[in-house]
Design goal:
There is one protein chain. With 608 residues, the protein is of the alpha/beta class. The chain folds into three domains: 243 residues, 4-Layer Sandwich (Glutamine Phosphoribosylpyrophosphate, subunit 1, domain 1); 191 residues, 3-Layer(aba) Sandwich (Rossmann fold), CATH 3.40.50.10490; 142 residues, Rossmann fold (3-Layer(aba) Sandwich). 37% of the residues lie in helices and 22% in strands. It has 19 helices and 26 strands. The longest helix has 22 residues. The structure holds fructose -6-phosphate (F6R).
């Protein structure tokens, strides 16, 4: 995710902000920028790529002043480029922003109508113009920022400078994190603690809806509507490395816990209560969507598991036949692709060599292509005809977690969009599905509360040499994912199987040593999965049942029951994926493995 650093005090701002941005580099970014106020004038430097590019620019054209803001950007709206990098400026108002503004298109249209001229493709630039608009009306920097922020929908953490009020800096948040640090009358504000930890350990954690006005050696916190707020300062005792992980022991655990936010960001601005799904960069008209006769979904590893779930969505909601292929197979098997074939390529990194080759194979045969990617402007995203970005933020742990659940959500939105265009679902049905999607982040949050119980299970089963994961229907890909997660980070052998296939071979493996994870939410095949559970128990196997409100019915049939929140069956894979990730994580962590960088694996597989 993007990084924010702001400073107001008596020291030179630029070196402090640059140091803070460097300490946020681990979060991943594609461009960076700094603005300072010097002798009543705002000056901005921005550069695409790594911080070193910005540093070189600053060596040639330094920035003075003791008040400034800086940003590292992870692209969400618009390419990674200098023009899209933050800070964004309009009429002397300068803004850095993290989050996604859902109504930015509406606001941009309104402001363009009033004569505002936009330079970038970002949602952030709208905030600068909106503040400028209100500043002209009210003549007050503080009032203008309050008015502008109250008109935004979506998530934001912002820090704002105003050329006409040089002694002030404003920060506010709603949905994206922001922390204030202070020492000796100097103030720091940042999206994450490590940016400031070398300067101060005294921090104030802002809550949603809070607004901070920094002045000359003082700061005032209030709610956006002006109500006063009393905040307590806390002393941070973490070591800097731990702080980069937001207090989590590993990036993987942090990323597992980020899933409610990642899913909400992937949905933001794309689903409308009235029963519509807008996927702006899909670049396919309703007519083109209606012409599709066949779909391929092509991917590798965890992304391939998301593809298997996508097939369920698309065939059910849009009634188009779907083949799911592993990219390294697709590229060499001369697939039958025609002008009416759509190939979806799923890739977190957007750089996986086999998936890229599969994309080129489909394009070479004149088929249409759409990428589902997390990294903006990655090769697969750029070369595809259309793209649906997952807004999971940078994934640092090698084992994919939040990228996977957001891929599932993106595929569900795509299937609804396709179904609406083809008339296989009504807007009334769509409204129900949108409602279910909106509730999903909270359900994932509740699922994460099982972390302690799952750690206990991991402790009980960490000595096993092999694991079996079983599921049916859309839970079969989750069984595959559970097995993959466990083997890649704990190096324990694990296999995922469709539960109905157990009798055709794997049942021979079952004995008292074998933990069997059985995915058994209450759905059409629940009774059958419950029978499979009995079969495992009858052979002495140790059953970990993952279920929802049916949990009680399974009492006595399993050694351990994980009872998860119920959601409609289509979305249940998002919920059951979470305990698979946590189980693998805790087993690996308890075994002392290198969770974030498991042996032999790379985050982005750019070779065949
Ligand atoms: C597993 C994992 C890998 C990736 C695979 C594809 O945890 O991370 O299996 O899913 O290498 O990578 P992307 O999605 O970047 O194409």
């Amino acid at each position: 995710m993007c990084g924010i650093v702001g400073f107001i005090g008596s020291n030179e701002a630029t070196p402090i902000i640059l140091d803070g941005l460097r300490r946020l580099e681990y979060r991943g970014y594609d461009s960076a920028g700094i603005a300072t106020l010097n002798h009543g004038k705002v000056e901005i430097r921005r550069a695409a790529g790594k911080l070193v590019n910005l540093e070189m620019m600053l060596q040639e054209r330094p920035l003075g002043g003791s008040c400034g803001i800086g940003h590292t950007r992870w692209a969400t709206h618009g390419r990674p480029s200098e023009i899209n990098a933050h800070p964004h400026c309009a009429g002397g108002i300068v803004v850095v922003h993290n989050g996604i503004i859902e109504n930015y298109r509406f606001l941009k249209g309104m402001l363009t109508g009033k004569g505002h001229h936009f330079r970038s493709e970002t949602d952030t630039e709208v905030i600068a113009h909106l503040i400028e608009h209100h500043f002209k009306e009210t003549g007050s920097f503080e009032a203008a920022v309050r008015l502008a922020l109250s008109e935004l929908r979506g998530a934001y953490a912002v820090v704002v400078l105003c050329e006409k009020e040089p002694g002030h800096l404003i920060a506010a948040k709603s949905g994206s994190p922001l922390v204030v640090g202070h020492r000796g009358g100097e103030f720091y504000v940042a999206s994450d603690i490590p940016a400031m930890l070398s300067r101060t350990r005294e921090m104030i954690f802002l809550d949603d809806g809070e607004f901070v006005l920094f002045g000359n050696r003082d700061m005032k916190v209030s709610m956006l509507d002006g109500r006063k707020v009393r905040k307590e300062s806390k002393t941070i005792t973490w070591n800097p490395l731990l702080a980069e992980k937001g207090g989590y022991r590993h990036f993987m655990l942090k990323e597992i816990h980020e899933q409610p936010r990642a899913i909400a960001d992937t949905l933001a601005g794309r689903i409308q209560e009235k029963g519509e799904v807008q996927l702006e960069e899909l670049h396919l008209t309703d007519v083109e969507l209606r012409r599709i006769e066949k779909l391929f979904i092509v991917a590798c590893g965890t992304s391939w598991h998301a593809a298997l779930i996508g097939k369920f969505f698309i065939e059910k909601l849009a009634r188009v036949p779907v083949d799911v292929d592993i990219a390294s197979e697709f590229r060499y098997r001369d697939p039958i692709v025609t002008g009416n074939t759509l190939t979806l390529l799923i890739s977190q990194s957007g750089e996986t060599a086999d998936t890229l080759a599969a994309l080129r194979e489909a394009k070479g045969k004149k088929g249409k292509t759409v990428a589902v990617c997390n990294v903006v402007e990655s090769s697969i995203a750029r070369e595809s005809d259309g793209v649906i970005y997952t807004h999971a933020g940078p994934e640092i742990g090698v084992a994919s977690t939040k990228a996977f659940t957001t891929q599932i959500v993106a595929l569900y939105m795509f299937a609804i969009r396709l179904g609406l265009a083809r008339g296989t679902i009504s807007s009334g049905q769509c409204r129900g599905m949108i409602h279910d999607l909106q509730a999903l982040p909270e359900k994932v949050e509740k699922t994460l509360m099982q972390d302690g119980a799952i750690e206990e299970a991991a402790r009980a089963y960490m000595g096993a040499k092999d694991f079996l994961f079983l599921g049916r229907g859309n839970q079969y890909p989750i069984a595959l994912e559970g097995a993959l997660k466990l083997k890649e980070i704990s190096y324990i052998h694990a296999e995922g199987y469709p539960a109905g296939e157990m009798k055709h071979g794997p049942i021979a493996l079952i004995d008292e040593q074998m933990p069997v994870v059985i995915l058994a939410p209450r759905n059409e095949t629940f009774e059958k999965v419950a029978s499979n559970m009995e079969e495992v128990r009858a052979r002495g196997g140790r059953v970990i049942a993952v279920t929802d409100h049916a949990g009680e019915e399974l009492t006595g049939k399993a050694d351990l029951i994980l009872n998860l929140p119920a959601v409609p069956d289509d979305l249940m894979p998002v919920i059951t994926a979470v305990p698979m990730q946590l189980l693998a994580y805790h087993v690996a962590a308890l075994l002392g493995k290198d969770v974030d960088q498991p042996r032999n694996l790379a985050k982005s597989v750019t070779v065949e």
